């Protein structure tokens, strides 16, 4: 037998091999006798990518479902059923009571649900003269881009919470490189009216009041950007509040940006929310089963876009003053 016709057999391998086995380890496209071998299965990398896509997508779906389920289970575990549907108009006493522990209590659930990313995407759109109502402990403050804002006004009716927000704001600016060559007392000044002023801003205000009350505009045309996150759930007559914010916005270029939670796309989930809503509102001052879409429609504002997450319970909304915007100044 000619040497060229012999098969080289590795130690431990079978002495007999089929034609398929002989070519198994040869690279794709290897030429034999001057002809390229066919590549029936295509590129291995392409096949792997095709298999990986559905796995990644399925994993993300499972992860998001588990995270939301964990958040929902933890929320239900903190409340018990109770009768009654009324909640006090002024809920600042609840927030004053929980202000010091509020961030710690919501940090885990917000991380699980990816709310930090949603807060960032909302806040990064703030430009010009900015108003943020229901600021709470200032969970959006870290996401502001100071180079885009001419002024900023923070409003909340809880004195304890807005003081925490004020400290966060001061801490953020003290860390900015452009302020580090200045002393803290030089970089930040507090004037006689209680307004903090910073070199980066024309002015910064922290107002302890209801968002329904008149809010002074920094310029006659009103605010360029108005933000509210998780505030509709805790205010009385939320449609009237949105209408009020629309009148505070610049009539031509103003935008109202909302990050809210409310009713779901699924009735089975809405039934659970409805069942536990009174207890949740009584403890936290938050009605988590409100119909956000109807509230927006009743406000008279024009919808620019709406995105929904977490089975439809989280609402990312962009609005602008509607055609029927009230002319009366406030």
Describe the structure.
α2 (44-77) runs antiparallel to α3, α3 (92-113) crosses α5 and α8 crosses α10. This protein has helices spanning 19-23, 44-77, 92-113, 115-123, 159-174, 177-180, 184-187, 238-248, 267-284, 292-299; strands at residues 31-32, 35-36, 128-133, 149-156, 189-190, 196-197, 203-208, 225-229, 255-261, 302-309, 314-320. The protein is α/β, with parallel strands linked by helices. The chain is globular.
Break the fold down into its secondary structure elements and pairings.
Blueprint lengths: L18 H5 L7 E2 L2 E2 L7 H34 L14 H22 L1 H9 L4 E6 L15 E8 L2 H16 L2 H4 L3 H4 L1 E2 L5 E2 L5 E6 L16 E5 L8 H11 L6 E7 L5 H18 L7 H8 L2 E8 L4 E7 L10
Parallel strand pairs: 3-4, 3-8, 4-7, 8-9
Antiparallel strand pairs: 1-2, 5-6, 9-11, 10-11
Helix pairs in contact: 2-3, 3-5, 8-10
Strand content of the residues, in percent?
15-25%
Biggest sheet descriptor: 7 strands, mixed
Task: Identify the overall geometry.
Answer: globular
Helix content: 25-40%
Structural class: alpha/beta
Distance between the termini: 104 Å
Order of helices and strands: HEEHHHEEHHHEEEEHEHHEE
Largest sheet: spatial strand order: 7-4-3-8-9-11-10
Essential attributes:
about 325 residues, alpha/beta, seven-stranded mixed beta sheet, globular, disordered C terminus
Briefly characterize the structure.
The protein is α/β, with parallel strands linked by helices and 330 residues long. It is built from ten helices and eleven strands.
């Amino acid at each position: 037998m000619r040497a060229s016709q012999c098969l080289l057999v590795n130690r431990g391998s079978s002495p007999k091999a089929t034609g398929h086995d002989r070519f198994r380890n040869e690279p794709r496209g290897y030429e034999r006798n001057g002809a390229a071998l066919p590549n029936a299965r295509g590129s291995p990398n392409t096949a792997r990518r095709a298999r990986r896509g559905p796995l990644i997508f399925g994993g993300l779906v499972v992860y998001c479902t588990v995270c939301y389920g964990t958040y929902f289970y933890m929320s239900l575990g903190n409340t018990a059923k109770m009768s009654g549907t009324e909640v006090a108009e002024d809920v600042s006493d609840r927030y004053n009571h929980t202000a010091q522990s509020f961030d710690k209590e919501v940090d885990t659930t917000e991380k699980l649900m990816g709310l930090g990313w949603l807060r960032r995407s909302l806040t990064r759109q703030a430009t010009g003269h900015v108003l943020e109502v229901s600021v709470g402990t200032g969970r959006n403050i870290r996401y502001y881009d100071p180079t885009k804002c001419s002024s900023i006004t923070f409003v909340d009716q809880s004195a304890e919470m807005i003081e925490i927000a004020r400290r966060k704001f001061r801490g953020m600016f003290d860390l900015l490189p452009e302020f580090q060559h200045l002393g803290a007392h030089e970089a930040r000044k507090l004037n006689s009216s209680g307004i903090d002023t910073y070199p980066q801003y024309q002015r910064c205000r922290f107002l302890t009041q209801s968002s329904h009350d008149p809010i002074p505009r920094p310029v006659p045309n009103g605010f360029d950007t108005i933000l509210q996150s998780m505030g509709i759930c805790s205010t009385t007559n939320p449609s009237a509040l949105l209408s009020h914010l629309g009148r505070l916005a610049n009539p031509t270029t103003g935008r109202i940006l909302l990050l809210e939670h409310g009713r779901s796309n699924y009735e089975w989930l809405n039934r659970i929310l409805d069942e536990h809503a009174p207890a949740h509102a009584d403890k936290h001052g938050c009605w988590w089963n409100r119909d956000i879409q109807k509230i927006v429609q009743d406000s008279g504002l024009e919808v620019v876009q709406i995105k929904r997450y977490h089975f439809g319970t989280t609402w990312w909304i962009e609005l602008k003053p509607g055609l029927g915007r009230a002319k009366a100044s406030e």
